[in-house]
Amino acid sequence: SQLIREEFTSKKVNESQLEYLTSLSHSRSTFFEDFHFFAAHSGANDMYSYIDKDLPESEFAASFNDIKENFILTGHTHIPYIRKFGSTTVINPGSAGQPRDADPRASAALIEDGEAKIIRVPYDVEKTIERINELMTIPEIPRERLISILRTGKL
Description:
This protein is of the alpha/beta class. It is 32% helix and 25% strand.
């Protein structure tokens, strides 16, 4: 399925766009108002690690060694959560299009006054599926798997 994704994407992205995407850093640290944020696709050092929200605290904290920011924004699992350790809040906003927590609504994180929360937004899944069928020329099995994920919110 990764090969199919790469093949589909390669047909949609031109050389200039690909160069730009490959030039991007794995992670980024930034300030906004009074808060310091660290953002990465997954862990601090590994773009593809799955950081389980239910890990024991020592293991969970070790996933973010040397990160001192107030907020750590992470993803990759498509499972939304907010977890604190020490003075740091780790936020995984989940997914707007391929949820993995049995809730097909789009999920996002909202931070107000230094407090984070996960929000859910319903959207027209069937219209999304219709567009996938119109635009994606991928084999039936991966397409049906994607459609099932969109409808059920789980693999």
